[in-house]
Amino acid sequence: MMKRLLKHWTKVFVRRGWYCYDFLGADHRTSWVLRYLAGGFLTDWVSVYEQAVARAIGLPHAITFGAGRMAFYAALEALGVGPGDEVIVPGYTCVVVPNAILYRGATPRYVDICRETFNMDPRQLEQAITPRTKVIVAQHTFGRPCEIDAITEIARRHRLVVIEDCAHAVGGSFRGQRLGTFGDVAFVSTDQSKVFSTSLGGAVCCASPPLAEKLRTIQQRSAQLPWWCRVRITFQYGLLALLTRPSLYWASQPFIQLLQRLKVFFWFRDELHTQRPPYYPARLSNVQAFIGWHVIQALQSNVRHRQAVARRYAEILHGAGSVRDDGVWARYSLLVPSPQRWERALEKYFVVGRWFSSVSHGRADDWAAIHYTSGQCPIAEFVAEHIVNFPTHGRIDERALRRFHMWVERLGFTAERLSEARRG
Ligand SMILES: Cc1ncc(COP(=O)(O)O)c(C=O)c1O
Question: Which atom of ligand 1 is nearest to the CA of 200?
Answer without folding.
Answer: 10
